[in-house]
Amino acid sequence: MRPCLAIAASVVAFALLIERAGYLAAVIAAVFVASLGSRESNVRQALMLAIVVAAAMAVLFVGLLDQPLRLIATF
Fold first, then answer.
1. To the nearest 10°, the Cα dihedral for 66, 55, 70, 15?
2. What angle do CA 20, 21, 26 make, to 5 degrees?
3. 21 in any annotated domain
4. Which end of the chain has the least Cβ crowding within 10 Å, N or C?
5. pTM for the full model?
6. How far is 58 from 67, CA to CA, in rounded Å?
7. Three-state DSSP class for 37?
8. 28, 51 in Cβ contact below 8 A?
9. What is the per-residue pLDDT across 39-58, written as a single tens digit (0 to 9) for each?
10. Helix ranges (DSSP H) in the chain
């Protein structure tokens, strides 16, 4: 049950943050929440994974595929 809830919560987190906080924060939050669904990972590992995935996705989607995504929020 825990993994299913974590995945659902990560999708909700991404949806709520993508417009307000920007792409990087949304990806970091989504991956962090999803990885906490695993009993084998700890908070430090989840945070490191989230940062690496967010950086890779930024390079892929914004850098290579030239998608018009806001990486960080502008206030």
1. 110
2. 110
3. yes
4. C
5. 0.89
6. 9
7. coil
8. yes
9. 898 999 999 999 999 999 99
10. 2-20, 23-35, 43-57
